[in-house]
Write a structure and sequence with these properties.
With 398 residues, the protein is an alpha/beta fold. 41% of the residues lie in helices and 16% in strands. The chain has a seven-stranded parallel sheet with strand order 3-2-1-4-5-7-12, sandwiched between helices. Strands 16-15-18 form a three-stranded antiparallel sheet, with no helix packed on it. A two-stranded parallel ribbon has the order 6-17.
C-alpha cells in the first residue's frame, strides 16, 4: 500500500494521551511539519504544554530537535468558527495543510451532553469545514463506546461497518456525542470529504516502555485510577466485563498508517486489542505480577466505599475512580450491577487487523509481560507501590 507523502500535518488534541503519542509517531517516522492547534494564552505556554506530553513518551529527548524544528503552534479553539483565527491566517492554513488528524475530545464521563457537544460535535464540525475548504483528508478519532446500550446485548458482534444499529444512550452523554460526531463525518463524505475513522479501545501506556502521562500533566485516566485503587487497597470486585486494553503506541502507529493510505478512505477501523480480556483476567495478571488482591462481590465492594468503611493509613480511602464508581452506582442503581449484566459483546477488529498486518503493525497481547511493563512504569513514577511495598493494605472498619 502506497502512503501519501505529507509535507504539512494539522493535529487537534495534541496535548492529550493519544494526541501526544501521535505527534511522537509523526516526528519519528515522517518528515512532515506539524501544525498543532492548542488553546493557550501565548505560543510559549502552548509549546511548553506540547513539550510536556512529548517528554512523557520521549524522556531522553531523542526527537526534541525534530520537535523544535518541525512543530508549529497555532493558538486557537476548535469550538470557535475558523478556530478563532483571522480570515487571512485561516485561509493560509487551509492552503498549506495536506492531512488532518482530529484527536481532540472532551472525555468527561459525567458532563452534560451540551457541555460535551461543544468540543465533540461543534469542534468536529469546524474541523470538517476546514478539511472541505482545502480538500484535505481527515482522520477522525472515535471510540468503540459508540455501541452505546448494545454493549448489553449478549452475543452481538459490533462490526467496523456498523454505526447506528438502534443503540440508545441513557446516562451515556460522551458516547452519544461520539456517535453523532461519526455521523457528521459520514455526512461530510457526501460533500466530498476524504475521511478515515478510528475507534480506539481502552488506551493504556506504551507497550514497550510503559510510558503514560501519570505525572507532569493533569491527565491520568480512569484505567490507571483502577490500577491505583487495586494496589492501594488490595480490593476489587468480580467483573467479567471486557477490558479492551489497547497500548497507546499501537493506537498512534495505526492511526498514522491508516490516515496516509488512500485505500483506507471512507472506512472505519476498530483500533482495539484483538486479545480481549475480562477485568477479572486483568486483575489476575496484576496478582501474577506479585500484588495481593481480594475479590469481593460488587455490592459488597461498593457498599464498603459508600459507607466510608475503607481506611488507608488511618484515613477514609477515596480516589477519582471510587468517586466515579459511586456516582455511576447512584445513577444506574443496583439493578444494573456489573455482576448482573452480560456484556459478552464482541468488538470485531478483522478489517483493521487485515489492513495493518500488511504493514507489520500488530498489537501486543495482554499478558504478564505487558502488565509487568505497565506496573513497573507506575512504580518508577511513584504512582503505585511495588509488590514488595504494597503493605499496609487498606483496613475495613464497620
Amino acid at each position: 500500500m502506497n502512503q501519501v507523502d505529507c509535507k504539512n500535518i494539522f493535529i487537534t488534541g495534541v496535548t492529550g494521551v493519544v494526541g501526544g503519542r501521535l505527534l511522537y509517531e509523526i516526528l519519528a517516522s515522517t518528515q512532515a511539519n506539524v501544525y498543532c492547534l492548542v488553546r493557550a494564552d501565548n505560543v510559549q505556554k502552548a509549546k511548553q504544554r506540547i513539550a510536556d506530553i512529548l517528554t512523557v513518551y520521549d524522556p531522553q529527548h531523542k526527537i526534541f530537535s525534530q520537535f523544535e524544528s518541525r512543530t508549529n503552534v497555532i493558538i486557537g479553539d476548535i469550538t470557535n468558527k475558523h478556530f478563532g483565527l483571522t480570515t487571512e491566517d485561516y485561509s493560509h492554513l487551509v492552503q498549506k495543510i495536506d492531512q488532518v488528524f482530529h484527536v481532540a475530545a472532551n472525555v468527561n464521563m459525567v458532563a452534560s451532553f451540551e457541555k460535551l457537544a461543544e468540543v465533540n460535535l461543534k469542534g468536529t464540525s469546524e474541523v470538517i469545514e476546514f478539511c472541505l475548504a482545502g480538500q484535505i483528508p481527515m482522520l477522525h478519532t472515535s471510540s468503540y463506546s459508540v455501541i452505546g446500550s448494545k454493549t448489553m446485548e449478549p452475543g452481538l458482534v459490533f462490526k467496523e461497518t456498523d454505526l447506528d444499529i438502534g443503540q440508545t444512550f441513557d446516562n451515556q452523554n460522551y458516547e452519544h456525542t461520539k456517535l453523532q460526531a461519526e455521523q457528521r463525518v459520514h455526512e461530510a463524505g457526501n460533500r466530498g470529504l476524504k475521511w478515515v475513522i478510528v475507534r480506539l479501545g481502552d488506551i493504556l501506556g506504551d507497550s514497550k516502555t510503559g510510558c503514560y502521562p501519570l505525572t507532569g500533566t493533569t491527565i491520568k485516566g480512569i484505567y490507571y485510577g483502577i490500577i491505583k485503587a487495586i494496589v492501594d487497597t488490595g480490593l476489587f470486585f468480580f467483573l467479567k466485563d471486557y477490558f479492551y486494553i489497547t497500548p497507546v503506541d499501537y493506537a498512534a502507529e495505526s492511526s498514522l498508517h491508516l490516515a496516509l493510505n488512500p485505500e483506507a478512505y471512507g472506512k472505519t477501523f476498530h483500533i482495539i486489542n484483538p486479545d480481549c480480556k475480562s477485568f477479572y483476567d486483568f486483575v489476575n495478571l496484576i496478582v501474577d505480577v506479585g500484588y495481593r488482591v481480594k475479590i469481593l462481590p460488587y455490592e459488597k465492594y461498593i457498599s464498603l466505599f459508600r459507607d466510608n468503611s475503607v481506611f488507608k493509613e488511618g484515613k477514609i480511602y477515596s480516589s477519582s475512580f471510587i468517586n466515579l464508581l459511586l456516582f455511576s452506582d447512584l445513577i444506574t442503581g443496583s439493578e444494573l450491577s456489573p455482576e448482573l449484566i452480560d456484556t459478552s459483546v464482541i468488538i470485531d477488529t478483522s478489517n483493521a487487523e487485515e489492513f495493518l498486518s500488511k504493514a507489520n503493525i500488530f498489537c501486543h497481547k495482554v499478558d504478564i509481560d505487558l502488565l509487568s511493563t505497565y506496573l513497573k512504569y507506575c512504580v518508577e513514577k511513584g504512582f503505585i507501590a511495588s509488590p514488595a511495598n504494597q503493605s499496609p493494605l487498606a483496613t475495613i472498619k464497620y
